[in-house]
Design a protein that fits this description.
Helix content: 55-70%
Strand content: under 5%
Number of domains: 1
Number of helices: 6
Structural class: mainly alpha
Radius of gyration: 16 Å
Largest sheet: none
């Protein structure tokens, strides 16, 4: 994939990652239980890689949706970092640029997505 395209996608993903983290913190502030306050404190003191694991202990649907999306964004950023971004996780063919522009976290090409069972 072209370097300019990857740079654009990386910027888009980093912006989304930042927004997701802000929404997670805002959502946590709405909870008053002690466990949530402890997790919020841990999030502020830990590195960003620990966020999904720390958030896994909170059973709030909105938080779980944010956490899931954050994991997808971070997986895509990791793939960019190791030079594997844009390759289908099943067949390793290139995922179309159009698909990646619609959802930069997409892990499968159109053909594999049709046959995915999960």
């Amino acid at each position: 994939m072209r370097a300019a395209f990857i740079l654009l996608i990386r910027q888009k993903l980093e912006e989304e990652q930042s927004v997701l983290r802000q929404h997670i913190v805002q959502c946590l502030h709405t909870h008053s239980d002690l466990n949530t306050k402890i997790i919020l404190q841990q999030l502020t003191e830990s590195d960003e890689q620990s966020w999904p694991e720390l958030l896994a202990t909170i059973y709030s649907e909105p938080l779980q949706q944010l956490r899931s999306r954050l994991e997808m964004v971070e997986a895509a950023l990791s793939q960019i970092h190791i030079g594997q971004y844009g390759s289908c996780s099943d067949c390793e063919k290139t995922i179309s640029s159009e698909t990646l522009l619609m959802d930069p976290t997409e892990q499968r090409c159109a053909e594999c997505k049709k046959h995915r069972r999960y």
